[in-house]
Amino acid sequence: MLSMKVIFVFGLALIFVSADIVGGITELSGDDLKEAEVTLNNSLSKLASGDGPNYKLGKIIKATRQIVAGNKYVYDVELIEGSKTKVCNVVIVSQPWLENGIEVTFNCPDGQVVKRHSA
Ligand SMILES: *[C@@H]1O[C@H](CO)[C@@H](O)[C@H](O)[C@H]1NC(C)=O
């Protein structure tokens, strides 16, 4: 009876550990945060020189990365549009091996915009 419990608890722990490896969400700092900033700036400038929106990065409030099929970055950021600054949640799913494999979703107070661009 005890061993059943041990196996159950151990199995549960294993599920959590493997979930962390496969789908873990990491809050970024240091070099990882810098890399996430480069990724975001790259998307913002590609979109600004394409069909928009035309944003510049104000500052990153928080950023996370999740390794999926590719990378998924989630940012809380201040975005600058002309003379206005707004706080948005931005999601970048990066699958650079696909055509137009970078998908950028802006969740801003004035609504949601989804864009794709090449790597
Ligand atoms: C990202 O863009 C912002 C605004 O243009 C700039 O201040 C910042 O230095 C850039 N960051 C990187 C890592 O290039």
Using the CA coordinates, give the radius of gyration. Answer: 18 Å
Named once each, the bound ligands are: 2-acetamido-2-deoxy-beta-D-glucopyranose
Q: How far is it from the N-terminal to the C-terminal residue, by CA? A: 55 Å
Q: Under CATH, the topology is which?
A: Nuclear Transport Factor 2, Chain: A
Q: Which ranges are low-confidence, i.e. pLDDT below 50, for 5 or more consecutive residues?
A: 12-21
> What structural category arises from helix and sheet content?
alpha+beta
User: What string gives the helices and strands in order?
Assistant: HEHEEEEE
User: In which range does the helix fraction lie?
Assistant: 25-40%
Going by CATH, the architecture would be Roll
CATH C-level class? Alpha Beta
Total domains: 1
Task: Please tell me about this protein's structure.
With 119 residues, the chain is an alpha+beta fold. It has a single domain (25-117), classed as Nuclear Transport Factor 2, Chain: A (Roll), CATH 3.10.450. The protein has 2 helices and 6 strands, in the order αβαβββββ. It has helices at 2-23, 30-48; strands spanning 25-27, 56-68, 70-81, 84-94, 102-108, 111-117. The protein has a 6-stranded antiparallel β-sheet. β3 and β4 (84-94) form a beta hairpin. It is globular and about 35 Å long. The model is unreliable at 12-21 (pLDDT under 50). The chain binds 2-acetamido-2-deoxy-beta-D-glucopyranose (NAG). 2-acetamido-2-deoxy-beta-D-glucopyranose is lined by residues 37-38, 41, 56-57. This is Cystatin domain-containing protein. It holds the Pfam family Cystatin. InterPro entries: Cystatin-like, Cystatin_dom, Cystatin_sf, Prot_inh_cystat_CS.
